[in-house]
Structures are given as structure tokens and as C-alpha cells.
Amino acid sequence: MKKYLLILCVFSISLSGIKAQKPNSSDEEKIHGAVLGVFDGLATLSIATVKSFCTPTCIILESGKIWNLDTIDLKMKSLPAKPGLYTRVNHLDFLDSKINGDCAWIYYANQAVITMGGKTSVVRWLESAFLKKEKNEWKIQLLHSTELDRIFR
């Protein structure tokens, strides 16, 4: 009997050391909200919105290049800001997320329908993000994007 209790204690102690866990629905919603918020900012060409969901030192790995929030700002400023000249509709399919204390990671499929200058393309990416919890809000610290395909209509 003592042998079984010892095994049970060792098993319980080993499980208590596991820190990554399935996010609770509140944290998971906030993580999803931060990612969605960044893409809402991209769709509306609002760097203020993008920044509100990122840490100040956020890094974006995009098409083999290393970008920061200033890079995103410059890219958005180069797009036509007049209504109807540029539209972007995002669809994200969240695949998985994990939390470890004040850090989290998530990966998801991203598809955007982008219209610019009367031409429409559908772009699909596989993306991952690392987030940090700051003042009870999840902020993106690192976003990595791999373009899968681009179809012109």
C-alpha cells in the first residue's frame, strides 16, 4: 500500500510541474482578440489599432524579412487610403494556443481578400504569434507569417 501511495505522490508532483496548459476561455478569447485586433488595424490602415495589440518592441517575420511596428506603419502609408481603393477582409482559423504564466503562443490559418486599385487577390498564410500578458492584456511580441499562396481574381 505504501508503494502505491509513493507512486501516486511522485506522479502528482510531476504533474504539478507542468506549466503550459490549455487556455481558459477568458484568456483564450483575449489572445484571439489581440490577433484579430492587429488584423482589424491592418484592414482599416490604422497603425494606432495595430500598436494597441502589440508590445512596443513587437517583431514581425514576413516574407523572409524582419519588420517592426515602424515598418508596418510605412507599409500601410504606402497603400491608397481613399475609400474603395483598398479593402482587406480577413478570416482567421485558430488552430491551437497554449499559455505558460504571462506568455502564450498561438498558431492559425489566415486568409485575406485584398482589393487594391480594382484588382482582387486572395492570400493565404500559416502564422504563429508569441504574446505577453501586460497589465492583464495580451500583447503580441512576435508574429511569424508564412505565405502559402496568392490567387489573383
Summarize the helices and strands and which ones pair or pack.
Elements: H1 2-16, H2 25-43, H3 47-52, E1 54-62, E2 65-67, H4 69-77, E3 86-100, E4 103-116, E5 119-134, E6 137-152
Parallel strand pairs: 1-6
Antiparallel strand pairs: 1-2, 3-4, 4-5, 5-6
Report on this structure:
With 153 residues, the chain is α+β, with helices and mostly antiparallel strands. The protein has one domain (21-152): Roll (Nuclear Transport Factor 2, Chain: A), CATH 3.10.450.50. The protein contains four helices and six strands. The protein has helices at residues 2-16, 25-43, 47-52, 69-77; strands at 54-62, 65-67, 86-100, 103-116, 119-134, 137-152. It has a six-stranded mixed sheet with strand order 2-1-6-5-4-3. The longest helix is centred in the first third of the chain and has 19 residues, at 25-43. It is globular. The protein starts with a helix and ends with a strand. Mean pLDDT is 86; it is low at 1-23.
If classified by CATH, what would the architecture be? Roll
Query: Radius of gyration from the CA trace?
Result: 20 Å
User: Going across the major beta sheet, what is the strand order?
Assistant: 2-1-6-5-4-3
CATH class: Alpha Beta
How many distinct helices? 4
Helix content: 25-40%
Q: From N to C, what is the helix and strand string?
A: HHHEEHEEEE
> How would you classify the helix and strand content by structural class?
alpha+beta
Mean pLDDT: 86
Q: Examine the coordinates and then state which fold CATH places here, giving the name of the CATH topology.
A: Nuclear Transport Factor 2, Chain: A
Report how far the terminal alpha carbons are from each other: 71 Å
Largest sheet: 6 strands, mixed
Shape, per Cα inertia axes: globular
Total of domains: 1
Tell me the fraction of residues in β-strands, as a range. over 45%
How many β-strand runs? 6
